[in-house]
Amino acid sequence: MRKQNLLFLAVVASQMGATKCGQVLRDPGFDLWCGEELCAWKLERGEVKRVATWHESDAGVELVGSDVAIEQLAPVNSGDGTCIRFELVANVAANAEVYLNVDAQGDGTLEMHERIPTANWKPLSYNFAVAAPYDGIRFEITKKGAGTATLANIGADIAQDQCVDLTPLDPGPRRAGSQCSEGSQCASGMCGGSPTRVPGDPWFPLVCLGCDGTTCGTGETCGLGDPLSPVFAVPVECVATGSKEVGEQCIADAECGSSICEANVCSSCRLGCGCHAAWDNGPHVCDAGAPGAPCGVDGDCASGHCNGSVRSECEDGRACTSPAACPFGMGDAALQNTACTTVGIQGGSCQ
To answer: Tens digits of per-residue pLDDT, 21-68?
Structure first.
């Protein structure tokens, strides 16, 4: 029975890719507009406008102005595949310079910069490979010049066996929190087990580490830093000793001002005093706290009021200010960021 359960888990894991049935990008038809802005694509600069295309049922996006850029971070990773096919229909005037940029890992470094040619509603396709391991691809489309540029049906998917003769794009040294198989792939030279879940992976694979027990300076400890990307694990890096408040993520007691890291969250207790989690996967605090006692929600206090900064988290416990900071979902929600939810109070004290 145990072997059957393990086999079932392995099969399920193999079907839990970061794409949606091989589809890499959201909203290939530009059907989802939020007012005058695209919902799935982020406007970096310039202006965009929804316009008709060659067919009344198909909407396109016009890049308006002489300096325009839109981008979308896709959660696709090397577990899904290393060959990508990018497609679009383009209507580009001769006096417009339009480029497709590919940023593997979404770290701001472009591994591909390809000009989209002058076209009159022409279907175009680009295949490229990315060296494994990689976590996410940022697709960017830019336009320079006064000419008209309208795009439609932008999409990307996993293209099996279509990149055999192509040299894979090299993401270069990977940042802390990204997947790795050996230290040479990491900017830090260190590759090890992840203390937090890697988005899009049901297991705890190896990731690039920013520190270990011997690399941090005086007044620092090796702990959890600020999240760098929704497609990376929360990075392990040097942080100031005792700098974290109750409610923040941690991996070691030394990170916390309370000197207690319980279940990967800075807490004020471990046992006794009615010690409990203030919220699901939240800090452990005492029951019925007196004035000044640490708290996570109002119910932790005898007074019924917990003072402090509101904390919002993603489903994996990382801090967030909007869903854009949260890992992507799985299955039907594979290309959508998960929720950023207000959970309680960080660094709270009872009134």
So the answer is: 889 999 888 888 888 889 999 999 999 999 988 776 678 999 999 999
The predicted pLDDT at position 334 comes to: 84
The answer to whether the CB of 258 falls within 8 A of the CB of 268 is yes
Taking only the tens place, the pLDDT of each residue in 277-313 is 999 999 999 999 999 999 999 999 999 999 999 999 9
Cβ-based neighbour number of residue 35 at 10 Å = 6
∠ CA 72-76-79, nearest 5°, is 170
pLDDT at 204: 67
One-letter identity of residue 51: V
Of the candidates 259, 321, 318, the one whose C-alpha atom is nearest the C-alpha of residue 294 is: 259
CA distance 226 to 279: 21
Tokens of 22: 């091989």
The dihedral built from the CA positions of residue 171, 176, 180 and 186, taken in this order, carries a sign that is positive
The strand pair at 83-92 and 149-158 is best described as antiparallel
Task: Give the Cα separation of 227 and 234 in Å (integer).
Answer: 5
What region, left, alpha or beta, does residue 251 occupy, with left being phi > 0 and alpha being psi -120 to 50 degrees?
alpha
Contact 188, 209 (CB under 8 A): yes
Cα–Cα separations (whole angstroms), residue 173 to 181, 193, 200, 252: 12, 18, 21, 27
**DSSP string across 19-32:** SBTTB-SS-TT---
192 Cβ contact list (under 8 Å, min separation 6): 206, 207, 209, 212
Pick the CATH number of 23-158 from 3.10.129.10, 2.60.40.420, 2.60.120.260, 1.10.10.10: 2.60.120.260
What ranges do the domains of the chain cover?
Answer: 23-158
Q: Bridge-partner residues for 72, per DSSP?
A: 139
**Residue holding tokens 């002058």?**
118
Of the candidates 222, 285, 290, 219, the one whose C-alpha atom is nearest the C-alpha of residue 252 is: 222
**DSSP-assigned letter for residue 194:** -
